[in-house]
Amino acid sequence: MRLSFSGLSSLFLAFLTSTSLLGAPLAGPNVGGRWAGTLRLPSGNNLTFIINIKDNGGRRTATLDVPSQGAQSVPIDQVELRADSLLMTSTQIKASYAGRLTGDGQQIDGRWQQNGKKLPLVLQRATSTTTSGPKRPQEPAPPFPYREEQVRFTSKDPGVQLAGTLTVPAGTGPFPAVVLLSGSGAQDRDESVFGHHPFRVIADYLTRRGIAVLRFDDRGVGQSGGNSTTATAADYAKDAQGALAFLRSRPGLNPRQLGLMGHSEGGTAAITAASQAQGGPAFLVLLATPGVPGIDVLSRQAMDLARLKTQDPKVLASTEQRQRNMLTIVQQTQDNVRAQQQIIKVLTPAVALPPDMAEQIHKAAEAQAVMVTSPAFRHMLADNPQKTLPTVKCPVLALNGSKDLQVAASVNLPAIEKALKGAGNRDVTTQELPGLNHLFQTAKTGAQSEYSQIEETFSPIALQSIGDWLVQRTTKR
């Protein structure tokens, strides 16, 4: 499902196009080098900033790294030092920093300003420990005991060319194979998030167990063509069908043992692809996939996330009512402009607020209104797995984490099992994995703020559950 980040955090993921850097003439103390600091967000989450200041032929330039978000070399256009005062501005992420250098030249005390917020940020000259990125111990490293190939194929949607990576076990085969389908939003082939590459980890694990894996950039992302801004799960289902057709044409792969594995909304696309009369998968793996109507999934998501912050029944009731009101507007109002106006009104408190706070809330409401009226969100909201799941006749494995706050296991897993078995599917396995969040990491609370802090990319228990089930289904045929 879609992740909801604070506006301040998400800006680092939205403006990473490289441009030439400008600088200011050198003057004053030496501020060149690497600086590190921790920005504490209003949500309570922390972001480590690494700022690299360089002297390029008499002019200062700088870039910003945010390791936990995978942001690297974000251009800082202006670097100006007046006496002991430093001013830096990045037009790409609409942010600025103003600080004062301490007498020993080892620290800068200042404030980071972005998206209407001013937050304290102390920068210190960086050491090797502060400049390193987040630890990701499961990240695969070469040499690999399998073949890896960069491939291109065509979606069943005419004119959409997709690019990805195919990993094939060593030997002659023929091997079973699985296509990985990412969750909502524009995702690359590794489903990269917060420095994690879960699809890369899954592909490495399964290929070592004798199963070929195809993972690919979503349409409009990376090296794939198409438009990500208008794409829905129905479009991604066509991409999945194109991936299966591509694998059937590959020598060394067993055309009767080709399946789909979808995470979250990717599972919705997998179900749609599996419901087709021809060219469907031999098996499905559904990871944190909705099993109840979209409005129920999204309403429960809002409540579970709200419970992390409060147990006040009045606040929770208000949150649920506001969420359902917003979703009902989307369902009943097809005109986006009218819908967005109504949604902003629903999300804006009917109380007097300080001007700066009122402006922040209004901007956040505007962004939310645009997001929930997008084609992808409208399709998600209208989706009803109880109508599509009964058409799936192939073997199905559905996994969910007990700490998943975006697609609740206790609601969705039973619904998936009931819909499949009720329609006569005799090979259905559902499993709730204790302690795992929506990304299948071992988590404390399941909060989104933990995703970047957890070193584990994908639970080894979940990997083994998937691998064992796939090996059993593909070796008995």
UniProtKB/TrEMBL annotation:
Pfam families: Hydrolase_4
Region (Disordered): 126-145
Domain (Serine aminopeptidase S33) ranges: 202-439
Molecular function GO labels: hydrolase activity
Signal peptide range in chain numbering: 1-23
Keyword list, A-Z: Hydrolase, Signal
Presence of keyword Transcription: no
Residue ranges crossing the lipid bilayer per the database entry: none
Official protein name in the record: Alpha/beta hydrolase
